[in-house]
Amino acid sequence: MQKACASCTKGFTRIAVITAILLLLEFLANVHPASSAPQREFTTGDVLVSIGNSQVQWYDPYGNLIQTFDSGEKSGIEGLVLDPLKYNLYVTNFDARVVSSLNSAGQSGWRFNTGVDGNPTSILFDKDGNIYIALANSKGNNILKFDSAGNSIGKFQASPEIYRLTKVILSNIYGFDLPVDQKTMFYTVGGLSIKRYDGSGSGAPLMDFAELPAYMAHAVFGAYAIRLLPPGDGTGGLLVANQGNIVRLDGNGTAIQTYNVPYEDGWITLNLDPDGESFWSASGPNVYKFNLQDGSYRQVFNTGPYDTVEALAVVGEFIAAQPTPTFTPTVTDTSTATPTFTPTRINTATFTPTGSSTPTITPIYTSTFTPTDTPANIPPNQPPIATPPSQPSWPLVLPIVGGLVLVGIIGTITFIALRRPPLPNPNPNLNLGRMNVQGHKDMGSQVVELGSNLPTPQIHLSPGLGKTSYSVESKDGSR
Predict the structure, then answer these.
(1) Which of the 8 DSSP states describes residue 384?
(2) Is the pLDDT of residue 27 over 90?
(3) Which of 109, 273, 284, 460 would disulfide-bridge 101, Cβ 3.0–4.6 Å?
(4) How many angstroms separate the CA atoms of 120 and 143, rounded?
(5) Which residues does 323 contact at the CB level (< 8 Å), separation at least 6?
(6) Predicted confidence (pLDDT) per residue in 369-407, tens digit
(7) From CA 467, how far away is CA 204, in angstroms rounded?
(8) How far apart are CA 469 and CA 479, in angstroms?
(9) Torsion angle, alpha carbons of 18, 23, 27, 30, to 10
(10) Contact yes or no for 374/384 (Cβ under 8 A)
(11) Which sign, positive or negative, has the C-alpha torsion 46, 73, 39, 384?
């Protein structure tokens, strides 16, 4: 009987413990699901780099990897830019001849096929949200202009360059920037020249801005990415990634400073940091941040031993063609149910003359939220940011788990108690002698003789003895 009870208790305890463990695992899965963290937005100072094979890595300013995107085009990516409101990333898929966009959840949106026009390289936005795409391997027009809906509104054929070191005609546009006047295009074709083109009207070539000294040229190719420095009209000069180094030119086109890192020789991309004091560039898989004034640098992160960073963008970077936005969101909820808010962005700018020929632009950006409106200056068909499903309130699960654990503990204690065996007769052959049974005062005493070979003493007393005590006395008189 005792063995049966012990077996039942042991089985019950095992079931209780296993049930408690399974419920605890389910509880932990619900408290920390993979999708429970809110979706992170692109944040000022974040860095995005393309590493080949249609992949883009997203890092915070300190070099911590946040996410890896895939454009889905199975192509190298040579250009990255965020739209003026920093909600979507636009990428140029060079081999696929496609320009597409991704939001911070990695979802694809706007897509344009450049087709026979050429392979897209650089890309940027002007202050009105129009998109400029520079091309390589074009048979004619090598700069395309689109409105925010993707409608073609301009095509230009920028001038080539005869590279002095090889006498090769270079017409593939790699670096491209647009100043505050929204029409004078600065560009490079992989040679020594920083070229310009008037994008107003039907377009016209302009005099070159500068030509790099021959000793700065790379053995095969020269100037690639460029970025105009503040105030963004050319008078502040620019930076150019020159493969062998990075060169700073002043407003007259004169080289005044170079930046480099020992044993690095692959500078083809760069972008300015929002702090106004530094810029980012990459050589191979190594991404560096340089101080603009003294040239000091630090390696912030490495994308991987077999990667080559082909393009780089910084969230909030200074882009001459775009004013720097300041966001003041206002949310007004007038509905009774819980609405889903889609931002409507109203972009306005006030112009305050400073007495010179160059106005000071003070942009004022405000945001209002309505349930059904469509964001301005954002191409259509953009997918919404994914919202993770609501999770159960985990404190409600704690009493259940605690109760099951308590049941398991009680079952374990009960099992241990019931399975304790009775104390055996240490010597079954011991002659136990006699037992003196003492009763009430009117009973006197009775002596019961016990056998010698009983494993357990068997005692039978007559009914009615009342309160009784007994003692066992051995043959030798000990009790």
Answers:
(1) P
(2) no
(3) 109
(4) 9
(5) 127, 349, 361, 363
(6) 344 333 333 343 433 433 333 444 444 445 565 666 666
(7) 125
(8) 14
(9) 110
(10) no
(11) positive
SS3 category, 183: coil
Rg value, the chain, Cα: 41
Query: Contact 121/158 with Cβ under 8 angstroms?
Result: no
| Lowest-pLDDT choice from 25-34, 115-124, 177-186, 327-336 | 327-336
List of residues 6+ apart from 52 with CB closer than 8 A: 76, 77, 307, 308, 310
pLDDT tens digits, 188-226 = 999 999 999 999 888 899 999 999 887 776 655 689 999
| Structural contact between residues 479 and 472, judged by C-beta atoms closer than 8 angstroms | yes
Of 319, 314, 310, 316, nearest to 300 by C-alpha is 314
Residue 14's SS3 state is helix
Residue 79, pLDDT above cutoff 50: yes
Torsion on CA atoms 7, 11, 17, 21, rounded to nearest 10: 150
Helix (H, G, I), strand (E, B) or coil at 459: coil
- Domain range list for the chain: 2-33+391-418, 47-314, 329-370, 434-473
Short-list 323, 347, 376, 379, CA closest to 148: 379
**pLDDT 10s digits, 271-319:** 999 999 999 999 999 999 999 999 999 999 999 988 899 999 999 999 9
Token reading at 73: 């085009």
Q: Specify the long-range contacts of residues 185-188, CB closer than 8 Å, at least 24 apart.
A: 185/132, 185/143, 185/156, 185/158, 186/226, 186/228, 186/234, 186/238, 187/122, 187/134, 187/143, 187/158, 187/226, 188/222, 188/223, 188/224, 188/225, 188/226, 188/240
* Alpha carbon distance 82, 68 (integer Å): 16
The beta strands (E) that lie in 157-217 are given as: 161-162, 169-170, 176-177, 184-187, 193-198, 204-211
The two structure tokens encoding residue 227: 């970025």
3-state secondary structure of 75: coil
Write the secondary structure of 278-322 as one string of H (helix), E (strand) and C (coil): EEEEEECCEEEEEECCCCCEEEEEECCCCCCCCEEEECCCCCCCC
The answer to whether the CB of 196 falls within 8 A of the CB of 185 is yes
| Mean of pLDDT values over 149-165 | 86
Cα–Cα dist 120/173, whole Å: 9
